[in-house]
Please model this.
Amino acid sequence: MSSTVDDDTTTLPPPVLTDGIVVHDLHRAFGSVKALDGVHLTARAGAVTALVGPNGSGKTTLLLVLAGLLVPDRGAVRVAGHDPVAHGPLARAGTGWMPDTFGTWDSLTAREVLLTFAAAYRLSPAAAAARVTELLATVHLSEYADRPASVLSRGQKQRLGLARALVHDPSVLLLDEPASGLDPRSRVDLRILLRRLADEGRTVLVSSHVLSELDEMADDAVFLSRGRTVVPEATAGTSASWHVRALSVEALTAWLTSTGTAWQPDGAAATATGAGGVLVDVDGDDGAARLVRDAVTAGVPLVSLVPAAGALEQAYLTLEEERR
Ligand SMILES: Nc1ncnc2c1ncn2[C@@H]1O[C@H](COP(=O)(O)OP(=O)(O)OP(=O)(O)O)[C@@H](O)[C@H]1O
Ligand SMILES: [Mg+2]
Model:
């Protein structure tokens, strides 16, 4: 996972790229609220880039600008080589946009919704029909194709929104909270689909609050805080909480206590497995290796030792520290 914030480009012109997304010193205010206050980022083609930030940090505003749905106050944006303001139709032809909630019209079926968008993108009726059938299958909605879209569940509507974003085979995908409302199976499907789309050479920029999920699907990450792109503090090697589980949690806690190691009950381990686990502050990978060695030497029946938070979550929490 690498950060793709260009933090040293304030005085440079935006780089010229013909694919991917480049954003240079982007600003957008709503009245006195500076929703975007100096955003710099690059999202490369062939990769999934995570857009991470707290509520109100400007993620949706940024995605709306990239989708050509909101005009920025200043700054430069290139999406697949096009400026969404100056070359709106060209940029939108190459961009698939999935909003955080996908509104549908009461009278149209799921298939008709997608056909309407396909027609707007000027697909021929025959091409549109084939494409829509294929996409309904991709998002597992074939069964619901001819029912009114308005009766779809929230998660089904999200999946329809994803299909809509893909209807014109865009090279850049902008997805705002695509996993929200999806059941576990659909989340896995989404992850596999986004990976496939990136492997096909597309640019995928995806915002989500579910950091563990982004951790698994994203190659790069961009962090927003109060409308600005920020670089989180390096977290590697610092002390972090790890889940430790053992066949006998009593033996584990007795040993931890005897070695003077602080531990806390691990609610997640207890509910997920019914077995006992604790949370221990571990000093990086070296600390984890030492803990395993010492526990095994002492005869503690260890089952697993895993970081309590993924890399993205730990990076995110350093941002939250900055906010306090
Ligand atoms: N249409 C609008 N009018 C006024 N203020 C707005 C508008 N849209 C966004 N804002 C403000 O801009 C800031 C950024 O909002 P935005 O929706 O981009 O955040 P976000 O990162 O997507 O948050 P969330 O994680 O909650 O979706 C917030 O302070 C919000 O109140
Ligand atoms: Mg948002």
